Amino acid sequence: MTDQEIRTDTVKISNGDIQISAYIAMPASEGVFPGIVVLQEIFGINSHIRDVTERLAKEGYMAIAPALFQRTVPNFEAGYTPESIETGRNYAFQTKASELLSDIQAAIDYLKSLPNVKQNFGVIGFCFGGHVAYLAATLPDIKATASFYGARIATATLGDGEPTITRTPEIKGKLYAFFGSEDASIPVEQVDQIEEELQKYQIPHQIFRYDQADHGFFCDQRSSYNPDAAADAWKQVKQLFAKELQ
Fold it and tell me: What is the spatial distance between Cα 52 and Cα 64, in angstroms, rounded to a whole number?
């Protein structure tokens, strides 16, 4: 069943001494549904991320978007101005891979505690969240990952440590990664390197490269929005989650 009625809420997720704010969307009908964690851009849990979370719920998933900047700036939400980009980047640079993974696992554990959640979990992330999604793919619970234009996967990690690409052998499920050919923040050589590593370690995957698409092409609130690329990517995401999680 798709495009069904949904319910939404803002909840608190416990992770040690912190309470992580999260936006959750779920089908309004009775049933048991797979869970998907939605990972934000550098702009926080803004209207675009809430929209993606709701779209997934309409497709029959329990979708939750935890605030990845909770430790630094609770309730952060921004638009797409140059000032917001600079501010969001500064917050992103203050995150650490270990804390992000811990917070995502806390979101998964929260979903597990709900009676109407099937114990199949996926993750989807955009921009900063696309990089974090590649990290999250290493969590044992994650069976399917959709990573959108995650920059610096091949060259760095969040916080200190080896580049995130070095963790490719730890990926447990299937991974789809989406890139725009006009995205200056992710050179084609880095996309090739990611694909080579996924092939090397025999990780089930597909890499989608969209001509004339720039960074942020999936977001209809950004000037870089590319409706054709966004429509195809969403079709691929739905197929991925339907096959791996249902």
Answer: 10
219 in catalytic set:
no
Q: Catalytic site residue 215?
A: yes
**Order of strands across the sheet that contains 18-27:** 6-15, 18-27, 62-66, 33-39, 117-126, 142-148, 174-180, 205-210
Mode of pairing for the β-strands spanning 18-27 and 62-66: antiparallel
- 2 confidence band (pLDDT: 50, 70, 90): low
Burial class of residue 75 (count of CB atoms within 10 Å of its CB; 0-12, 13-18, 19+) = exposed
User: Catalytic: which of 48, 131, 205, 215?
Assistant: 215
- Give the Cα separation of 60 and 63 in Å (integer): 9
Residue partners of 162: CB distance under 8 A and separation at least 6: none
Question: Which residue in 48, 131, 141, 183 is the catalytic one?
Answer: 183
Residues with Cβ within 8 Å of residue 157, at least 6 apart in sequence = 97, 135, 163, 164
Name the residue among 88, 89, 62 with its Cα closest to residue 6: 62
pTM reported for the whole predicted model: 0.97
> Which residue of the set 48, 103, 127, 131 is catalytic?
127
